[in-house]
């Protein structure tokens, strides 16, 4: 609740509110909630509106305080919903799927799940920080879940990354990731074939697998989990299924969140 400091007009406003309560208390108990609009005469309603308008003109901070309170309540509700979603999907977030690429220690006791789009510039920017964190923290594993949310180019590159994993596991995935995430050319299937060849993969097999049932199922599962936890952008990080940080975040904030989640 946001408390508003008294002003010279506030006793009048308070009296009006007290009068409103008195009228409602005095009404007979019918077993049903009274409609406030029917509890006052037109003149009384007009007076209440006039008091509120005068209060807002005299002290506009009432409105800003009210907006702040609404935002605070909305944020609290959003956080509660996020905590509920994380708890509901705790197992999914703490148990990597066979198709998940993992940075760091695969048996690490601290699990960070990253949902990312390979075309997202912030996802590309954070890669060195993730590498640094796993080098410094030997009990950390970062589970990467690819989600195509930025259009057709994202879908093509996401399919190529998952197809690389299907073809050659973790090592093939990370070689293809380095090629894809560092590439500035337009993402086409032919471009993915070229990057696959440069990464030591079979380009023909990769291009076929990109539209195969296995790759499609993996991407669909990633998207469903992302939607279930209320993902609102990329990258999004989930720390030990306890905390979510959406959007661009740097090394220091990531390290702090990891420490808090332990």
UniProtKB/TrEMBL annotation:
Residues 68-262 form the Thioredoxin domain. PROSITE patterns: THIOREDOXIN_2. Keywords: Signal. SUPFAM superfamilies: Thioredoxin-like. InterPro entries: DSBA-like_thioredoxin_dom, ScsC_N, Thiol:disulfide_interchange, Thioredoxin-like_sf, Thioredoxin_domain. The keyword Transcription regulation does not apply. Transmembrane segments: none annotated. Residues 1-33 form the signal peptide. It holds the Pfam family DSBA. Gene3D superfamilies: Glutaredoxin. This is DsbA family protein. It comes from Komagataeibacter medellinensis. The lineage of its organism: Bacteria, Pseudomonadati, Pseudomonadota, Alphaproteobacteria, Acetobacterales.
